[in-house]
Each structure stands twice: as C-alpha cells, then as structure tokens.
Amino acid sequence: MAQTYSQIQKQIEKLQRQADALRNSEVNGVVDRIKVAIAHYGLTAAQLGLGPGKAVARPKKGLISSSKSGAKFSDGNGNVWSGRGPRPLWLRDALAAGRSIDEFRVGSPRKAKPVSVDRASGETAAPTALRARKKAKRTAKTSYKDDAGNSWSGFGPKPRWLKAALDAGKSLEDFAK
C-alpha cells in the first residue's frame, strides 16, 4: 500500500524526535563520565582550558596544516610546490641561479622575486618558455618518400610501406629526397 507525502513526513518527525532523544541520552552519559574523571583526577577548569579568559583548547595551526599538503613554496608568479616529491623546474632553476629556498617559503618574511633566468644574450625568459626551448624537436637530415606520397623522417621504426619496398629489393637511397 502506497503512503502519502504527509504520512512520510509524520514518520520523519517521529524518527527525528527519537534520534534527538537518543543523542541527548548519549550526551548525558558522556558528561557523567567526564564528571567522574574530573573528580577522580582533581582536574581544574584551567587545566581543561576552560578557565577565565581562556577559550576552549584547540590544536595549534601548525599541526593542522602539516597533515595537509598545501603550497609551502611559491615564486610569486603562480608556481607553487608542496614540498613533497621532486622539486619543480622553476625552483631548481632559481636555486641553480643562486637563490635560497627560504626565499620561496610561503609565509617567509623574505619575499620571493619572480623567477627569471638570464640568458647569455641578456634576454629573460619565463620558465615555461625555457622548457619549450629545451625540448626542441630534432630535424631529420634526410627524409624518405615514395611516389604514393608516403614519407618517413628516419626516426623511429620503419613504416610498413618502406619495409615492403625494401623486401621487394629497393634500397633506402631510392627513397631519399
């Protein structure tokens, strides 16, 4: 038999009242155990961090942040590093240029200057531009092409069309352009 919306809402209210009653009884049990422990050990409000002018004791901020892996090093350009894993390229470049790692520590009194690497020509490049320069592609001295429009740079494994032609008796020099 299907229930109506109002019947289900009444059940929810009844269950919520039951849950509140159970929670209150559990809280009362916890408070009673705490009172017994306070009496047994003779604890004072100050020892519990509840004395006058004192707030409830909370964990120190340093303990909380050390368990999370947030940014611990930054260069001011949006590059960050948590301190875990290998050092990123922007930090390695800056350290190689003579900078101190303390300059990049988040919250450090010494402000980190934006990272840039001076080239011999005097130009300054951003770290991403340096990575692009370092990974320039090699160019082939010779390219190999056939009459059907297939080509091979000479790098990597030989393509199927070239293997078939070589097996048929042709040489690489026949395809060099």
Describe the SSE topology.
Blueprint: H1 5-41, H2 61-67, E1 73-74, E2 80-81, H3 89-96, E3 117-118, E4 124-125, H4 127-134, E5 144-145, E6 151-152, H5 160-167
Antiparallel strand pairs: 1-2, 3-4, 5-6
What is this entry, summarized?
With 177 residues, this protein is mostly helical.
Walk me through this protein's architecture.
- The longest helix is centred in the N-terminal third of the chain and has 37 residues, at 5-41.
- Strand 3 and strand 4 (124-125) form a beta hairpin.
- It is elongated, with a radius of gyration of 36 Å.
- It folds into three domains: 1-51; 68-133, no CATH class; 144-174, no CATH class.
- The strands form three sheets. Strands 1-2 form a two-stranded antiparallel sheet. A two-stranded antiparallel ribbon has the order 3-4.
- Mean pLDDT is 80; it is low at 63-67 and 117-123.
- It has five helices and six strands.
- The chain is mostly helical and 177 residues long.
- Helix content is 38%, strand content 7%.
